[in-house]
Amino acid sequence: MDRSVSWTDPKSVALLLSRASGAVQKVRRSARPAPAIADRAAPLAPVAAAPKPPAQKEVPPLEQTSDNPSDRMDALIAWTLDHFPCTGAFVADDNGLTLAAHGISEAHVALVGPMLWAMANVRTIPGIDATAGALLLGVNMMSWVEGRSERGGFCLGTVGEQPLSTRALEQLKVALEVTVGGL
Amino acid sequence: MIDTKILEAAVLDLRNILRDGLVATDIWERSAGLSLAGFNQQPVAVALFTRITIELETSLADSNFPPLSRFYLLDMEGNHTVAVLNHGPILQGMLVDNKRANLGILISVAIPRMIETVARARPR
Hints:
The complex is a heterodimer. Chain A has six helices and five strands; from the N terminus they run αααββααβββα. Chain A has helices at residues 10-30, 37-41, 69-83, 106-110, 112-122, 166-181, and strands at residues 88-93, 98-102, 132-137, 140-149, 152-160. A five-stranded antiparallel sheet of chain A has the order 2-1-5-4-3, sandwiched between helices. The N and C termini of chain A lie far apart (87 Å). Chain B is α+β, with helices and mostly antiparallel strands. Chain B has one domain: Dynein light chain 2a, cytoplasmic (Beta-Lactamase). Classes of the chains: A alpha+beta, B alpha+beta. At the A-B interface, helix 3, strand 1 and strand 2 of A face helix 3 of B.
């Protein structure tokens, strides 16, 4: 290790100063030059266009290839999980009885029964559709759509961090109707 | 006359819906106990559920309860569920393995479908 500079030795002090000035020059060369005041007053250059949010992937329509109700429900659940931001999905009848589910307990699905009953009452208000919605379940959001067939009402729901968009709910509704329409 | 071909087609449809969850089913005339169609038929079950259904209907009537509507369910040991469907003069029993068949599909799809089909098979 070098000995510390003796302030009483003019040569050492001169050497130290020369080293220090060289280091400062290096720093200045590498540092970004500060903008001149004139530059600061200049109008802001047009900012490069902000990156567009990633385009929403087009969701392919659900195609049902089987007549079997269980297969149709499974296809609907798989399609939902593949194309929408959710960790669970289910299909229930309007009494809250599970027809198919993935990533959600039957106890949670059962709340569909009273929920759809409440929605039926909400629909008595003119102009209120109330066939889709979202509900906060602790830390998760349950989003659902309701569809009807000859055999009664059915509900397709998802569970995830965020509620689904209205566009997504419309897509789910179409898929649900395609599925239960063939039962 | 009851169209037994429609009933046989209905049983086949039921087997397709419930697959290996359907253990047995039988469709029979309530008064004569005559089996009309089925799968893995159980003559003892026909006699038993005819008796249970008549007792149930009588008990409900005697207690001024609403009459039996479309069906009743029995939860039995060994993951078995029995559904007895009331088609009027025709009864139907289904023995289902509830670990293999989804009860939602049974109640919301299979039973309503069966009721519609048996109604078509009955004379008008």
